Write the structure tokens for this entry.
Amino acid sequence: MTPPPSDTEPVASTVPRQFISFTIGAEEYGIDIIAIREIKGWTPTTALPDTPPFMRGVINLRGAIIPVLDLRARFTGQQTDATSRHVIMVVSVDGRDVGILMDAVADILTVSPESIQPVPELDHAHHSDALSGLVSVDGRMVALLDLPKLLHAPLSAAPGADV
């Protein structure tokens, strides 16, 4: 007779997950809603010396200094020409708050774990290592970000990085 699973044994989750989807150009990405602290309108950043091109700078958010990452620059090497239409999504990763500059927030997605597909291995894709999976929603493909990998990736992984 097989004993019942203990509380410490991993069990495949079938509980749907929620993501906030957002756009950068024509591409759509998703971030696990649990990691999101807040979404705010574009605020000009203060640049810091000796940072990679995708590190936009920092903002003061109610007394906390928050670094802001430009995902377009991180993924393509081209900086975002930020306007009042852009937003900063503040996420919490490993106890650190980080802002992510994006074009617009698109949707709240409820996704079953079985519908998340693996990311194909592509040698030329600079950001495929920062993705946890892909999901098709209403005929559009949404790339799900792996925030710890994205934020802890070596600086040399970014296009145009001189590290």
Notes: Residues 155-163 have pLDDT under 50 and may be disordered.
